[in-house]
Amino acid sequence: MKKGILHPLMLAGTGSDVGKSILATAFCRIFKQDGYSPAPFKAQNMALNSYATPDGLEIGRAQAVQAEAAGIPCHTDMNPLLLKPNSDHTSQVVLNGKPIGNRNAYDYFHKEGKEELRQQVNAAFDRLATKYNPIVMEGAGSISEINLKETDLVNLPMARYANADVFLVADIDRGGVFASVYGSIMLQTPEDRKLIKGILINKFRGDLRLFESGTKMLEELCGIPVLGVIPYYKDIYIEEEDSVELQNKTLQAKQGKINIAVVLLRHLSNFTDFNVLERDERVHLYYTNNTEELAKADIIIIPGTKSTLSDLYELRRNGAAQAILKAHREGTAVLGICGGYQLMGQEICDPEGVEGNISRLPGLGLLPITTTMKKEKITRQTQFYFRNDNTLCTGYEIHMGDTRPVANVTNQPLNRTVNGETDGYYMNDHCMGTYIHGILDNEVVIDHLLAPYTEKIKKKTFNYHTFKEEQYDKLAEHVKKYINLPLLYEILQKND
């Protein structure tokens, strides 16, 4: 295939959760396979699940996954504006990888200050477009929220700025696909309607032949081609953008597996830390705050949280804190990651009110450490050595807080970084904590964690990096099988 310059393309949606992020990941891998140099871009993302770039800044996890599928390092230009919810009404605003404060929803979506943010996201796109081709853009939510159109930074106004070809993604599984597609297009201004060059029907179940007439009807109604009808899949595993699917993972312990319970915190973040455990055949992973299910676990993991003190208060209120301590006394291992590591200490202090109006709470008391919340956020990728092993491991840190051993206690770090620093605390194989997200993606760590329980089941070690690469290729093949790829390339190279 001739490698000419391609227009930027945007995957816009008829609604939220129609599959834009997954399809963007697929197209990043497809273009890479076809010899191009793609890069993802989402002007504004809202997610608790974030990632640290190589230069120590913060972006949405979805764009980091898409960059991985494209085979390139992630960068803040791929997601210049990130909103991390603190509550139902407020979010931390992260601009170009750095937090700039908290905003409530009304103030944020008000017109004031929006043009400055628009300039910032446009500049990020421009920088990205000088290095990569094509830019695989992702919209947010529905393109039909006409009440927010004047302040929209991420959908058709962004596509208009980028001169992008827009492809409208619709989820047929939720029903009403004709109305959602036709209505989404007809609600646009004539200028924006011209940007929409094709339709992608996603999450189809059943015999594709049954929708052949529907495809023709949509093309006649909307005047643009349907580029593909993509079936729902169950055997491809791509990291999810946010925690919507966790409700489907709150299962019970199983016999014949190493049972690992992730404590289901109200403000749980970076749940992708546990994807590797979900795929490891030795493990049964489940999310719960049920005291009986926590008691059945071989290993309890306390995950990261966007609101450490609030979640600590809730754990004490609902009895989960007491259940964790009881399980640990009876032999269950406990691992804390990031906010979960902070929770395992003697106390958490917030004298500056970084998280709210709770200034101090006693921790779970599992580790001899104390944490003081700080306004400055630490974001960085980390190379480290786990315990006394010489295998180089990788991960990343995103946290607000300084954690140290309590007075008169010798530091027993879990990890040593390549630059000579230490991380976490190791009490013993049944009690440890770390600030490093992605620590479980390293085989040496997983094998050490599971070693005391290998008599329960013997399976080979799981290589998560190899697994992810296989999944990106499987996703690309799945999408290519069901879309009109020659027509897509024709549209992306056409001179209007």
Q: In CATH's first tier, which class of the largest domain applies?
A: Alpha Beta
Largest sheet geometry: 6 strands, parallel
Number of strands: 28
Q: How does CATH name the architecture of the largest domain? A: 3-Layer(aba) Sandwich
General description of the model:
This protein is of the alpha/beta class and 496 residues long. The strands form seven sheets. A six-stranded parallel beta sheet has the order 2-9-1-10-11-12, sandwiched between helices. The radius of gyration is 23 Å and the shape is globular. The mean pLDDT is 91.
SSE topology sketch:
Layout: E1 9-13, H1 20-33, E2 39-41, E3 44-46, E4 50-52, E5 58-60, H2 61-70, E6 81-85, E7 90-95, E8 98-104, H3 105-108, H4 114-129, E9 135-138, H5 156-162, E10 165-171, H6 177-186, H7 190-193, E11 196-204, H8 212-222, E12 226-231, E13 258-263, E14 268-269, H9 275-279, E15 283-288, H10 291-295, E16 299-302, E17 304-305, H11 308-318, H12 320-329, E18 333-337, H13 339-343, E19 347-349, E20 360-362, E21 369-372, E22 378-386, E23 392-399, E24 402-405, E25 415-417, E26 422-423, E27 425-428, E28 431-434, H14 443-450, H15 464-482, H16 485-493
Parallel strand pairs: 1-9, 1-10, 2-9, 3-6, 10-11, 11-12, 13-15, 13-16, 16-18, 18-28, 19-21
Antiparallel strand pairs: 4-5, 6-7, 7-8, 14-17, 19-20, 21-24, 22-23, 22-25, 25-26, 27-28
Helix pairs in contact: 1-2, 1-15, 6-8
Compact summary:
This protein is α/β, with parallel strands linked by helices.
Descriptive terms for the model:
single chain; 6-stranded parallel β-sheet; Rossmann fold; 496 residues; 16 helices; 2 domains; 28 strands; alpha/beta
